[in-house]
């Protein structure tokens, strides 16, 4: 305050190099509520998991996953015509039927498919598709028609409906997001505020965040705030730091029963397993995996992303099975759109429409669902969807989360036979 | 609230002897977003009067209409014509396309405004416009036509330092306002009171200063205000109720403008905007009425000149009183822009990197929760919004990861870099001067530049010890200095101005 130096101590270098780094941020982001199971210092032991509680894990493939090179119609002449250079050769696809095979990166998922633990819903989309990342993501997150603009997400509305009779005293998070770029996903926004929190990406940042937390604890805990507003801020900050520290302890003491690959995505799934094992009453987890916007030379990038996805999912499923938690958890992927069937001039693909999505779990009705897209398309034509994404949501709501779908989705959507009864 | 000055003394100009660097910091932090050392020095040298001239100039710079908004606006007549002729099923498609374009233009407008407001020379005036928009509220969620939102803000900026009655009259004709408060539904045979009520309650007088009858009669005076497609204000004389009305005890064939003039004749109008001003710039606690009426009376005598009001308020002894130093919680907009200015960074021109964190911190630009505007102050803070602020701080210390960007975003970033506006993250090289200092001096320098209140001994001590613990290894030393700065920016004190 008394420093009169006019020299900014961080001199600006306008030509600064924009450094690229894969390291993210590792920080807990709480909603306004601190979870009571952690805040309540007296109960050191975590509560016993409720056996009948089902949990949904949403995996966002951000950027628009190329469905046609994920679930490959390798016998279709149109596929070869539309994908002359980036098509996956017959010899490399991992066959799951006479006509369809998975991308060669998806060996682990092929295993899950053969075990009956992976369901594939083909050609999922919505009418009047939008090609903007931002808008189409919003449509998937809010479960709106493409002509409507909604300010709440489908999980948020599910929580609005499912938890109306919930005791207000409980602050246990009902939804948790991991590795999302911008904090809480729109999917979680409800009419009412629900306790949620986020674990942001970057295992490598852990030590630094612990440092900041400890320093802030000293600062926030110091007596004699210079004014009432700072006192209020110190108090609020202290509350969330204490909770944050306890969550880190739960995550740090977890012993996974499967070898997770060393990717931020797998680390997030491992954390989900830790929190499920810890008995959180959380019903929905949302984890984001980026990098699917493959406009240019997509082969290597797409192969890498699918490998990360496939191996991460398989490790997660194995871990849950070993902990006998697999009956409780169902995992589902989604992406804002698939990509254009005809490849572009840069050995990549542009924004498209419908694509397959995956559903994984021990209670999944494995195998193929829905119908594949018709590929008798002109150059640059989009596929027409055959299953509305809201039918998949309706299924998860009705048959997995046990909540009537209509109030959440604002309309009736046919459910699919994706869930086996326990 | 204990005030150190009487209502009579409160609004006296600050004595020249009380103007110093610390006062300049207070002014810059409250009137703008933050107090950068070079600007503090300049203001301290120039004096208060000249500084206020600069912050509230006779003709402030205006945000040019963003290209995307312009394009959507240019297309509106053609679109309206197409829409009129379209078959019902095509109308749906057209309507959808139009809303999507408005939405994209809205996000773009938000980014452009933030970028404009982040320029130090524009900061104080754009904050003033934000203040006015927090009084004369319209919301994007209802209005949806981005060009009308832009024009509303442009109107506030153009009238923002002129006579307040002219501003109020212009607002009553702002197409965004006509839509937002259903003024177009206010028909001669079936008056809609929405606008008239909010005009008296929230724009001009405040509750308790009018009767229900005043509202009913005022609503009649505002009949005939219409919008012609695609979005132009028109007065339709045949829709206007020309009959006698009685408002605030005055009877006549009153028009909407007459009602506004009559309202400004009331002392309550003089006190109303100063009340909003203190709540927006000064304190969560309301000033007692005698203070507000004292300023209001003098403001009325100035002809309700808004520039006079800004200068009187920001130049007053009360504004600089010790009880208002370093104890007001920054809004999310201010938190974000102060962070950019303090660290000399450019805003990332990508909506999801800016608009989403803004939403998590509790403020969506051009879209306050309701016609009362944002409540502000302590209401900005809960453990969720505080975590969002901390995440934002962390994010500006980490370069964007290109793998997480889609192709459109990479293009935007390339364009920003080409325009030399690509400093999105704090680079390690910038810590050179701090690393050269000893731990104690480094913490003092950072706290002195960034915090509005002096660092306490445990604040100073814990950070100093932390840096000192890594001095043996230059890389670790740098890392710790960097981590210290992050901690300072995440600390309670940095949330204050």
List the helices and strands and how they pair.
The complex is a heterodimer of chains A (422) and B (497).
Chain A: E1 28-30, H1 36-39, E2 55-61, E3 71-72, H2 77-82, E4 94-95, E5 101-102, H3 107-114, E6 118-125, H4 133-142, H5 154-162, E7 175-178, E8 196-199, H6 206-221, H7 228-252, H8 264-277, E9 284-289, H9 298-322, E10 329-334, E11 355-360, E12 367-369, E13 387-388, H10 389-400, H11 405-409
Parallel strand pairs in A: 2-9, 2-10, 6-12, 6-13, 7-8, 7-9
Antiparallel strand pairs in A: 1-8, 3-5, 4-5, 6-11, 10-11
Helix pairs in contact in A: 3-9, 6-7, 8-9
Chain B: H1 7-10, H2 21-31, H3 37-46, H4 48-55, H5 67-85, H6 88-118, H7 120-135, H8 140-143, H9 146-159, H10 164-172, H11 175-180, H12 194-204, H13 212-221, E1 225-228, E2 232-235, E3 245-247, E4 250-252, H14 256-264, H15 267-281, H16 289-301, H17 306-314, H18 332-343, H19 351-361, H20 383-396, H21 407-418, H22 432-436, H23 439-450, H24 457-468, H25 474-490
Antiparallel strand pairs in B: 1-2, 3-4
Helix pairs in contact in B: 2-3, 5-6, 9-10, 10-14, 12-13, 13-14, 15-16, 19-20, 23-24, 23-25, 24-25
Short overview:
The complex is a heterodimer of chains A (422) and B (497). Chain A is α/β, with parallel strands linked by helices. Helix content of chain A is 32%, strand content 13%.
% residues in beta strands of chain B: under 5%
What is the tally of beta strands of chain A?
13
> Topology as H/E string of chain B?
HHHHHHHHHHHHHEEEEHHHHHHHHHHHH
Percent in helix of chain A:
25-40%
Strand content of chain A: 5-15%
List unreliable stretches of 5+ residues of chain A: 1-26, 32-51
């Amino acid at each position: 305050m008394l420093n009169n130096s006019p020299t900014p101590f961080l001199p600006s270098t306008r030509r600064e190099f924009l450094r690229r780094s894969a390291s993210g941020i590792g920080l807990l982001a709480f909603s306004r509520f601190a979870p009571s199971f952690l805040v309540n210092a007296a109960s050191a032991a975590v509560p016993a998991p409720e056996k009948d509680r089902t949990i949904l894990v949403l995996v966002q493939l951000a950027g628009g996953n190329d469905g046609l090179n994920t679930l490959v119609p390798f016998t279709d002449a149109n596929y070869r015509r539309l994908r002359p250079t980036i098509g996956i050769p017959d010899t490399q696809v991992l066959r799951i039927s006479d006509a369809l095979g998975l991308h060669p990166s998806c060996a682990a998922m092929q295993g899950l498919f053969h075990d009956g633990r992976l369901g594939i819903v083909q050609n999922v989309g919505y009418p009047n598709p939008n090609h903007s990342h931002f808008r189409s993501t919003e449509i998937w997150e809010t479960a709106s028609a493409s002509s409507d603009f909604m300010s709440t997400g489908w999980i948020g509305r599910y929580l609005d409906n499912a938890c109306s009779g919930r005791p207000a005293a409980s602050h246990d998070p009902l939804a948790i997001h991991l590795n999302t770029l911008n904090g809480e996903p729109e999917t979680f926004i409800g009419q009412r505020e629900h306790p949620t929190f986020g674990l942001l990406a970057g295992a490598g940042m852990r030590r630094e965040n612990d440092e900041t937390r400890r320093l802030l604890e000293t600062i926030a805990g110091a007596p004699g705030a210079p004014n009432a507003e700072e006192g209020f801020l110190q108090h609020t900050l202290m509350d969330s730091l204490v909770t944050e520290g306890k969550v880190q302890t739960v995550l740090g003491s977890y012993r996974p029963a499967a070898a997770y690959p060393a990717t931020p995505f797998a680390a997030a799934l491992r954390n989900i397993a830790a929190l499920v094992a810890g008995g959180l009453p959380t019903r929905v987890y949302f984890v984001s995996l980026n990098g699917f916007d493959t406009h240019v030379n997509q082969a290597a990038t797409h192969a890498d992303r699918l490998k990360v996805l496939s191996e991460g999912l398989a490790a997660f499923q194995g871990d849950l099975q070993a902990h006998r938690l697999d009956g409780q958890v169902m995992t589902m992927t989604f992406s804002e759109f698939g990509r254009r069937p005809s490849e572009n001039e840069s050995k990549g693909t542009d924004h498209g429409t419908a694509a397959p999505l995956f559903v994984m779990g021990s209670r999944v009705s494995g195998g193929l669902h829905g119908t594949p897209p018709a590929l008798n398309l002109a150059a640059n034509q989009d596929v027409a969807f055959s299953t509305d994404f809201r039918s998949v949501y309706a299924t998860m709501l009705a048959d997995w989360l046990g909540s009537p779908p209509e109030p959440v989705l604002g309309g009736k959507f046919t459910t699919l036979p994706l869930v086996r009864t326990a | 609230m204990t005030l150190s000055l009487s209502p009579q003394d409160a609004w006296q100009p600050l004595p020249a002897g009380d103007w110093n660097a610390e006062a300049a910091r207070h002014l810059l932090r409250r009137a703008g977003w933050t107090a950068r050392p070079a600007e503090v020095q300049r203001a301290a040298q120039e004096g208060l009067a000249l500084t206020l001239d600069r912050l509230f100039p006779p003709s402030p710079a205006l945000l040019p209409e963003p290209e995307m908004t312009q394009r959507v606006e240019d297309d509106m007549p053609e679109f309206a014509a197409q829409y009129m002729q379209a078959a019902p099923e095509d109308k749906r498609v057209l309507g959808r396309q139009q809303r999507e374009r408005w939405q994209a233009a809205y996000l773009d407008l938000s980014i452009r405004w933030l970028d404009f407001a982040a320029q130090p020379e524009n900061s104080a005036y754009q904050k003033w416009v934000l203040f006015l928009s927090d009084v004369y509220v319209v919301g994007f969620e209802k209005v949806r036509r981005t060009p009308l939102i832009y024009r509303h803000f442009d109107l506030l900026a153009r009238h923002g330092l002129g006579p307040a009655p002219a501003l109020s009259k212009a607002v009553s004709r702002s197409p965004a306002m006509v839509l937002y408060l259903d003024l177009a539904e206010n028909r001669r045979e079936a008056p809609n009171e929405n606008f008239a009520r909010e005009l008296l309650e929230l724009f001009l007088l405040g509750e308790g200063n009018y009767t229900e009858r005043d509202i009913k009669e005022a609503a009649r005076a505002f009949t005939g205000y219409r919008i012609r497609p695609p979005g132009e204000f028109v007065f339709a004389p045949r829709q206007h109720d020309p009959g006698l009305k009685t408002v605030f005890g005055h009877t006549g064939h009153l028009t909407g403008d007459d009602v506004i003039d009559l309202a400004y004749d009331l002392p309550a109008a003089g006190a109303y905007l100063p009340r909003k001003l203190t709540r927006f710039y000064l304190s969560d606690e309301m000033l007692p009425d005698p203070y507000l009426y004292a300023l209001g009376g003098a403001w009325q005598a100035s002809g309700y000149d808004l520039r006079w009001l800004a200068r009187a308020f920001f130049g007053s002894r009360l504004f600089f009183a010790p009880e208002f130093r370093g104890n007001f919680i920054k809004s999310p907009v201010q938190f974000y822009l102060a962070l950019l200015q303090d660290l000399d960074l450019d805003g990332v021109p990508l909506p999801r990197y800016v608009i989403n964190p803004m939403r998590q911190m509790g403020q969506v630009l051009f879209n306050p929760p309701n016609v009362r505007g944002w409540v502000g102050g302590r209401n900005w803070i809960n453990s969720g919004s505080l975590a969002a602020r901390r995440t934002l701080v962390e994010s500006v210390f980490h370069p964007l990861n290109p793998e997480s960007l889609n192709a459109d975003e990479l293009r935007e970033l390339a364009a920003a870099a080409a325009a030399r506006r690509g400093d999105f993250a704090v680079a390690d090289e910038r810590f050179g001067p701090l690393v050269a200092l000893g731990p104690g001096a480094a913490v003092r320098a950072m706290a002195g530049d960034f915090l509005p209140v002096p660092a306490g001994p445990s604040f100073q001590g814990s950070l100093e010890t932390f840096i000192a613990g890594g001095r043996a290894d230059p890389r670790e030393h740098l890392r710790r200095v960097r981590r210290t700065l992050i901690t300072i920016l995440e600390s309670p004190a940095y949330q204050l101005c």
